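Lines hold sequence, tokenised fold; shown next:
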Amino acid sequence: MTNRQRLISDCDKLWSRIIKLKYKGRCGICGGVGKDPHHIARKNGQMRWLILNGIWLCRKCHDHDHEHQMNIKISAKIGLDLFVHLYELGQEVKGYKEWELLMVKAGLQIELKRIKT
């Protein structure tokens, strides 16, 4: 695994922990026990670690086979304006250089510490 791949993996893990803590382990749709982080909009470079682009879901609500219905429920929970804004941002693709990944990781670590306290 290259250093860049390791940084991406580290950022993914930090993002998932933050989303779980943000939702206190409960599903953001039904309130049941959550199991999975979910990217609301496409997880391209720009959106991959954006905290607003994450929701914690239970296995029942995290249903990519019925993504349209899942998205309707998510948009009802977070608000249609935010949902549309995230999808618009998701259309822009950005690749990260290694130094940018280090900055993203540092920011996620700071956010994780903030949420824990």
User: Anything to note?
Assistant: The chain has one domain: 3-112. Helices lie at 3-22, 67-78, 80-89, 98-116. The chain has a mean pLDDT of 91.
